[in-house]
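Inputs:
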Amino acid sequence: AQSVTQLGSHVSVSEGALVLLRCNYSSSVPPYLFWYVQYPNQGLQLLLKYTSAATLVKGINGFEAEFKKSETSFHLTKPSAHMSDAAEYFCAVSDKEVSNFGNEKLTFGTGTRLTIIP
Amino acid sequence: DAGVIQSPRHEVTEMGQEVTLRCKPISGHNSLFWYRQTMMRGLELLIYFNNNVPIDDSGMPEDRFSAKMPNASFSTLKIQPSEPRDSAVYFCASSPGTSGRNEQFFGPGTRLTVL
């Protein structure tokens, strides 16, 4: 069964500083990996996803993530934090198709709340 | 595109009452998911449907919870009777297919408070 671990439930960075949110996955087969963002009182929306093409994936709002199989990691980064980046971020994993059912099920991490310091 | 629509956005009820949450997925999407989010337990998948058929309901907490999808454009999640521990934000999401590479599109959620 697949799982993800997000290290650090809370991360604070200064405006303009590097953002690094960590995600490690466990999967019995090559995974698909996702980062979602949740702004206050809203649903989750997709930031970016890895589906076995390029290992460096670029997403919306200047975020990117790199798939590293040797480290089983998919960390999210942004070179320069903006006040509008304050939100909760979720890493998620799904398995590549191994059966006719259940492939679309996502397993989410526990989330990392990002605070931006002015 | 209107996105995933959920109603009501907020629901306050008393313990023992029946609660029905509603979801309209994005047109053309054939997978639908119900999640529950709380501070203590995070984001939990309750049940999901593919082509209106329940595929996995292992996350449904107990028999008080039931979900239906009578057609491709409508789903309900019912709690009967409700309890204070059911207080949470309930999200509906839909996706366009059965591939694990597909993005899930989330609705705005229903915030349920059971007194």
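Chain B touches chain A through 25 residues (CB under 8 Å). Flag for discussion at group meeting.
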